[in-house]
Write a structure and sequence with these properties.
Structural class: mainly alpha
Number of strands: 4
CATH superfamily of the largest domain: Fumarase/aspartase (Central domain)
CATH architecture of the largest domain: Up-down Bundle
Order of helices and strands: HHHHHHHEEHHHEHHEHHHHHHH
Largest sheet: 2 strands, antiparallel
Distance between the termini: 29 Å
CATH topology of the largest domain: Fumarase C, Chain A, domain 2
Radius of gyration: 30 Å
């Protein structure tokens, strides 16, 4: 079922399919088939019963979605209706085998495990978009190593930097947050199998053997114990998603600001306006920022849901699935949209230079202070430069010209210094060192793949 139009911006088609009703139902069927096989291997149920269950359940589909939803609301779990439907199907073809459907398991076992299988499919799509955006950022950081631009602090011109360093900064935070998020994803990929209250008591001494075979069949790891009411893995995964999407939101916000016509230094492909033909809106950046606004509330919900009673929660477990799915979908949308932005990003290095020139040299006030401070002391040097700045502002001249008219300042500068102190290319400090270090760290194992 496609997402509602209202949710189009906070999901992607690929991740939507991974969590679609049919995908979740299919994952639950995979659990029941794998469970029957595992129990047959362990000698818990007859081989013939496992074969019959697999043959029937493999072709099962949702017959009555309305009935599933009615049961879900009545029982607060989807598993009851699914198990009943599968048991009825098996009974029609193999009456003796039907009794062994879902043998020794509980509702949370099948649902939690199925959700992890759906998450695994969704992760493949998210990782593909992450790799796209990382490749695009890496290329920007390399290509623009010497592209000089204004650094901006509190939205005001600061000192020069390079767009290469800016892109590498984006790359670095995404590499770090992805590495952290991917590690939490790995920890979610465990089977849930504890039976009624987390002891597998219905299986006697066969519990561990069945669990082993079940996990192997589904390609999942075995946890130390069932995690019915211990939700730290999922909470950590959602919290790490919040950091990753926050990093994407920062990047999108920067690009949107650089797109403003009065700055005009970088542009995504952009979208239009229904009434103003001249506009080139940061549309995909808006999608990323929207997702970055959405996810923190979901993180808070997931953390709150960790407070779960005894061996199975009343409400805490029940809120998780929708919260997890919404988080993953929003994260996927942010990653895909940001990759689209970066792959088509246009950089105007001429405008970057022009914006530096438009400051009339005032961005080099710090440099001038630091040059004079050894002779005059920092406070006196700052006061002298402030006088020059005020004169420049009053006259509309450059800071260099205003400084030349102040003998107390100009007499302390050599001719070469008067020519070079106001050049952006010679006031980049350690920008290149930092850019190179960020690129190297982002290339480290785990920064792009889990």
């Amino acid at each position: 079922m496609p997402s509602p139009l209202t949710h189009t911006l906070v999901t992607t088609d690929a991740v939507g399919r991974a969590f679609a009703d049919e995908a979740l139902f299919s994952a639950m069927c995979r659990f029941e088939i794998a469970l029957a096989r595992a129990e047959a291997v362990a000698g818990v149920i007859p081989d013939a019963a496992a074969t019959a269950i697999a043959d029937v359940v493999r072709t099962a589909a949702i017959d009555d979605a309305v009935a599933l939803r009615v049961s879900l609301r009545a029982n607060a779990t989807l598993s009851i209706a699914v198990v009943q439907a599968l048991s009825a199907r098996v009974a029609q073809a193999h009456p003796e085998a039907a009794r062994y459907v879902h043998w020794g398991a509980t509702s949370q076992d099948v649902f939690d495990t199925a959700l992890m299988l759906c998450l695994r499919d969704a992760w493949i799509a998210i990782e593909a978009d992450h790799l796209r955006l990382m490749a695009a950022l890496d290329a920007l950081a390399v290509r623009h190593a010497r592209t000089v631009m204004l650094g901006r602090t509190l939205l005001q011109p600061a000192v020069p930097t390079t767009f290469g360093l800016k892109a590498a900064g984006w790359l670095g935070t995404l590499a770090r947050s992805w590495r952290a998020w991917a590690s939490t994803f790995d920890r979610t990929q465990v089977v849930q199998f504890g039976g009624a209250a987390g002891t597998l008591s219905a299986l006697g001494t066969h519990g561990p053997a069945v669990e082993q075979a079940l996990a192997e069949d589904l390609g999942l790891e075995i946890p130390d114990a069932p995690w019915h009411a211990h939700r730290d893995r999922l909470a950590a995964f959602v919290a790490a998603a919040g950091v990753y999407v926050g990093a994407l939101g920062k990047l999108a916000g920067d690009v949107a600001l650089l797109m403003q016509p009065e700055i005009g230094e970088a542009f995504e492909a952009g979208g239009g306006s229904s009434t103003m033909p001249h506009k080139r809106n940061p549309s995909r950046c808006a999608v990323v920022v929207a997702c970055a606004h959405r996810v923190p509330g979901l993180v808070a919900t997931m953390l709150g849901a960790m407070v779960q009673e005894h061996e199975r929660a009343v409400g805490g477990w029940h809120v998780e699935a929708a919260t997890l799915v919404d988080t993953v979908q929003a994260s996927a949308s942010a990653a895909a949209s940001m990759a689209d932005v970066l792959e088509s990003l246009t950089i105007d290095d001429v405008r970057m230079r022009a914006n530096i020139e438009a400051t009339r040299g005032t961005i080099f006030a710090e440099r001038l202070v630091m040059r004079l401070a050894p002779d005059l002391g920092r406070q006196e040097a700052a006061a002298l430069v402030k006088t020059a700045l005020e004169a420049a502002a009053a006259s509309g001249r450059s800071l260099a010209d205003a400084a030349a008219d102040l003998p107390a300042l100009a007499d302390r500068l050599t001719a070469d210094e008067r020519a070079t102190l106001f050049e952006a290319d010679t006031y980049l400090g350690s920008a290149e060192t930092f850019r190179a270090r960020l690129l190297a760290a982002a290339a480290a194992p785990g920064s792009r793949r889990h």
